[in-house]
What we know:
By secondary structure, this protein is of the alpha+beta class. The chain is built from 5 helices and 6 strands. A hairpin with a 4-residue loop joins strand 5 (100-102) and strand 6 (107-115).
Amino acid sequence: MAPALIASWEEGYAIAELWGRTAPVTRATSRIEEPHPLLWGILSIAEYQIDRGAGQKYLIDRLRSGDWLAIGYRSPRQPDDPAVIIPADEATKFGRRQSAVGDGVTTYVDARIIHAAAFRAH
């Protein structure tokens, strides 16, 4: 796996972190001065206080526009499998438990989300 992809994955946020289901995290945010920073728990707030499905839509929009990138492993994960950049489209769904991203056909696990500017910095 390319060193930049490894470093980016390590710096990224798990799905549960983005949805505010873990302790607050601050890594990799202060050095990014770009639109749509990664904010801990914002997706959960959007989902439950604005509109059901708003958090999913916002995350998909950011991934599709290229503002953010999802990096993870095809499921079932094998020991030698490389990490890949996960494609996102309207069918994409997010699972917090295994930090999974899937479209109903292909599932990726151990997914992490990172701002595109942080990825480019590697």
